[in-house]
Amino acid sequence: MNDAMVFSFNLDGERHAMLQSICDSLGIILKPVPREAFGLPLGALLGMPAARLAGAAEDSGFDDPMLLLCGLEEPTFSAFLQALRRSELPRIDLKAVLTPTNVAWTAVQLRNELLREHEQMRRASR
């Protein structure tokens, strides 16, 4: 059974089709997340009982494209990132791996943390 999954946020139409093609070629399951689920804990996307997760529901969304990678092991992880870089899919800056730390976060919280990290890296590179 393949546990490699990519959850996509705010990717539709051609962008979704391009990402689906990449995932299909690597045996990765692509699961688009509907906007109404952005306030759920990330673990709930994997079917974990929400009661076990500490994240608070949020109803605000975001428009940035974002990917959440779950269960991708080497060499699939590297192959996926390489395929993204080589594809004509517009760059997706917000990418994360599901961890024990972020499993209880919402997509909104994850996005906000990724933006903070990007800003810290930008400042550090000056």
Structure, described:
- By secondary structure, the chain is an alpha/beta fold.
- It has one domain.
- The chain contains 4 helices and 4 strands; from the N terminus they run βαβαβαβα.
- Strands 2-1-3-4 form a 4-stranded mixed beta sheet, sandwiched between helices.
- Strand 3, helix 3 and strand 4 form a beta-alpha-beta unit.
- The longest helix has 18 residues.
- It is globular and about 30 Å long.
- The mean pLDDT is 91.
Unreliable residue stretches? none
How many H/I helical runs?
4
Principal-axis shape equals globular
Helical content (DSSP H or I, runs of 4+) = 25-40%
Main sheet specs: 4 strands, mixed
Q: Name the average pLDDT.
A: 91
Comma- or semicolon-separated keywords:
126 residues, 4 helices, 4 strands, alpha/beta, single chain, four-stranded mixed sheet
Provide a compact summary of the structure.
This protein is an alpha/beta fold. The chain is built from 4 helices and 4 strands.
